[in-house]
Every structure is written in structure tokens, then in C-alpha cells.
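Bug #77: duplicate submission created two jobs. Keeping one. Sequence:
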Amino acid sequence: MISRELAIFAYLPDEVSEVPAGLLSLSEEGAISIGASFVYGSRYLARPNAIEIDPVSLSLREKHELVGTELYPAPGLPYFGAIRDAAPDAWGRRVIEAKRKVPLNSLPESEYLLAAGSNRVGALDVRLDINLPSTQGMPSDVHSLEYLIEAAQRIEEGLPIPTRLEAFFDAGTALGGARPKATVIDDQGKLWMAKFPSKSDGYNIPLVETSTLRLAQLAGIRIPELKDPIILAKGINVMLIERFDRVGAAKTMTRKHFISALTLLGCPEADSPRKNYADIADAMRKYGAAPMLAANLKELFSRMVFNILVTNDDDHLRNHGMLWVPQHQAWELSPLYDVVPKPTHATERFLHLGIGQQGRLATLDNALSCYARFGLTRDGAIEVIKQVWSIVREWKGCFEEFGVSGSEIDKISSAFRHARDIGGKKIGLF
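Kept job's structure:
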């Protein structure tokens, strides 16, 4: 077993540069994480604008008691959820492994944390030493998408990366999710996540995902800013979605601290399928910013209904996020992301997360069964369902307006279901 000590930095509101937040100790045996501990720095705790790194294990609610105190992850976790959120996920790890020419998932967690660089998700940074400078470099230019997608394709196929493409590695090392992606910067200095097609796709996912998010926005759900998908050579589409954990552009850019719902619930990833939307709602009541809590709970309910109607079963806890609100010293629901319809002809469908009293069964009456957990009345919850359905029912016309071809619409049409077929009659929609 090997123990490593890493310095954790935070980018704070109204600060010109990042500041040391504390020291992370990791115990590792090869690629297996054994345990972790964290000590906040006393100077960091003294800052009025210090951000809470992890609401469950590293809360700042009792600052005066934390000086010199060694803190540990929530029971059952080998490391802190918020720090794991700042590490690369599936795709980012593949990029790092390709760069180092090592097998999948073969590196210790500390190596993935360090290799992600300073352009990682959220407002944290991880370094070997508190005196080391930031490794933050400029992301790839948006005009280099042709090279980025070539590098991504080679990584996905397990092919060696030629020297001329090595400079584009770092654009994707910090990012989560399983699909090929990279951070790019536009001519105005704003950051975007470029999401590429995968070799296993059965339809144009970059275009369909962009259109699905726009559909959600029409239904009253907050989404990040989107650009029209860029069409590269050979008709390849690339989705461009705002890095909503960044504010501003170029040298004036600041960061927002981000955590996943997995971190908010303080549970291992293996427990995600046993959790439900109401669990997220309960955690939001505990850690959420009071002024926006009611609106956030209502929107979480809307997102659950939307996922039911479009058959997005990739709604696991990492695909729900929270952002730190400095003025309230608490958390709010992040914009919606990673929503992709799943075509299927199954009559009975399930989401990843539990929905209501019938578990993960994706029906509207099941969604209504736990309305009170979202701070809604029964009539209020039905109004939310009506609002979302009134938009989703027109999805084909919307997708046509968004530039989705008839052939692509045919490929995904089985993902969208009519409300009367999934409990709409039971709750009085018809």
C-alpha cells in the first residue's frame, strides 16, 4: 500500500488566482483506492468566500471546529465525492491511458487526479505540492475540431496517436462521461465542450442531443447555452455545449464549483441504481440554497417527467449536478445536461433512478406518486406534467425546426411515448 499527499486548490469568487484549500491524503494499492483523509488549511478556513468542497464529508457549516481536523469520506466511500468529481471520468481516463500507453483503469486514482490538469470540471485543482504552479494551459481552438475528432477516433479504436496529434490530448483529459469529447475555446475566449459521435452510434447523437436539450428548454427546463452543431468533413456532426462551470471569457473567466448528485447523496457509485429522484430532492433540502430551493425541486420533478417521456435512461447520479452559490453558501441545481433519447420497442420501460412508489417504472402515474417529496401539491405536480407533455408531444415538429432529418427522426421515434400510454389517463390528463 502506498500513501500519497496531494495539494487541493480552489478558485474562489472575486479572487484573482486560485488558493490552497487543504491537503488530501490517499492510500492506494495499485489501481485500488483504500482510503482517504483531508485537512483544510487554516488560512483557507479564515476566508469569508471559502467554498465548501464537499457538503457531506467536507462541510464548512462549523468552520471554527475544522482547524487542524482530519476529515474522512462518508461511510462506504474510499475517497471524497467532490474530489472524485474533479477527476476525469470514463472518457478522460481513456485519453490519459492512451497518452501513457497503459491498459484501461490501470492507474491509481491519484494519477488520474493529477493528470487531469487545471482545466478540470468545477473550481478545484489537484497538484503534487502546494508550491507548484497551475498546469492550466489554453484549450484547443474551436477551429481545430478536425484534429480533435481524428485524435478521439484513434483513442476510441485503441490506435496509436501520431506525433502531429499529441498536442490535442489535453483537451479531453479533464472531462467526464463515456462519450468522446474535448474542451475548446472560441474566438471570443469562451469555453465550450465539443461532443463527438462515437463509432457505436446508431443515429446522429450530437444533433439529436442538442435538439433534445432545446426541447427541454421549451418545456421550461434550464439548459446550458448551445451552438448549432458544426458539420465537419464527411458529414460528421459535433455538438457544442457551454461549459456552465465557467463564467465570462478569456482572462476574466472565473469558475463555479460543481459536484454531482452522487456526491450530494454521499453514496458509492454502485448504489446509484438503488437511489431515486426523491433522494436527490431530500438532499437538496438539506444542502440547497433556500431562496431557490422550491424552484429547484419543481425543476427536478420536471426533468424526471421529461426523461420518462423521451426514454432517457442514462439519468444516473453523475448526470445530475449541483453548483455552489457563494452568496448563500449553499448549493443549487445545475443546468440540465447529458439527455439522449433511447429508441426501444419495449412496452415496459425503466429509468436508471427510481421514480416513485413503483420503483424505476417509467410512467407518469408513478412519477405523480411521490409529488410531495418535491414540495408540490398533487394538482401542482399534474400541472408540471401537463406543461412538459404539451411540449414533448410536438417533438417531431420541433426537431424538424432544429434541423433533424426525417430519416434521423424515424430512427429515434420509438423513444418518444404518448402520455396516454404511460399513465396519462390515470392521472387525469385525458
